[in-house]
Design a protein that fits this description.
Blueprint lengths: L2 E9 L4 E4 L29 E9 L3 E10 L9 E8 L12 E2 L8 E2 L9 E2 L11 E7 L13 E8 L1
Antiparallel strand pairs: 1-2, 1-3, 3-9, 4-7, 4-8, 4-10, 5-6, 5-9
Length: 162
């Protein structure tokens, strides 16, 4: 049997976790939000999104976990997507953080650790949860960003499984 994975988004002061069905950014700290209901005001940042991966099933070792963004759809004027890996959960904020632009190439992809801080997730090892550490995302806009929906982004998550 192989490992399966699901992305989990955490929100709120008490860290409520849910399975992510989308990674929509908006003016509210909620999972799977509707951007029409919670738009980002031009010139502001979205609430941060905290996402991590949960591996289930049976495997020997998960390693080489990487994240980057495809440039297939690009950005609108003044829009950027920021990310930082291996984060601890903190209640999300809509204040612009110091995170970097998410890389566009696998060669410069962000490296992701296990929740326990290791480069690998070993199945059945004592104290291993099957979770990765959090990736924190934030969408930023400027006064030059046009009103309305932004282009859909494709995030790529890669890992090796033994």
């Amino acid at each position: 049997m192989a490992a399966t994975h699901a992305f989990k988004e955490s929100n709120g002061a008490g860290e409520v976790s849910s399975t992510a069905t989308n990674l929509n950014f908006g003016s509210n700290d909620s999972a799977n939000l509707n951007t029409a209901t919670y738009p980002i005001t031009r010139g502001n940042a979205s609430f941060e999104k905290y996402l991590r991966c949960l591996f289930t099933g049976v495997w020997t070792e998960i390693s080489n976990m990487k994240l980057w963004r495809s440039d297939a759809n690009g950005y609108k004027t003044g829009e950027t997507l920021k990310a930082a890996t291996n984060q601890a959960y903190v209640q999300p904020s809509d204040v612009a953080n110091a995170d970097s632009d998410i890389p566009l190439l696998v060669g410069s992809a962000l490296t992701i650790q296990s929740a326990e801080g290791a480069a690998t997730i070993v199945y059945g090892a004592s104290g291993v949860s099957g979770y990765t550490k959090y990736v924190r995302f934030q969408l930023r806009t400027t006064g030059s960003t046009p009103s309305g929906a932004v282009f859909q982004k494709t995030l790529l998550f890669q890992y090796d499984e033994v």
